[in-house]
Design a protein that fits this description.
The relative contact order is 0.24. The protein has three helices and four strands; from the N terminus they run βαβααββ. Strands 1-2-4-3 form a four-stranded mixed β-sheet, with helices on one face. With 81 residues, the protein is α+β, with helices and mostly antiparallel strands.
Length: 81
Amino acid sequence: MKMKLILTPPVAELEQKLEDVLLEAEEHRADIIEISYGTHAGETKKRILNYLEHKERRARYSRLVKSKEGWGRVFVYFKWK
């Protein structure tokens, strides 16, 4: 199952939206979360990465991939046992 979260800058309550999608992914045991934030959103990307790389949140997923080409995206991968 793949989940998608589209964020358009400026994003108010960014952390709450990210937490909601992480909880939903855990509930449905999603394989991937795709977070799309746009091409001109450098500050939004920094906020997303800082939020996801926090120690407690980092333990919840297995891998984080940042898109280098095209539209700004971050992929969060899960491994379920």
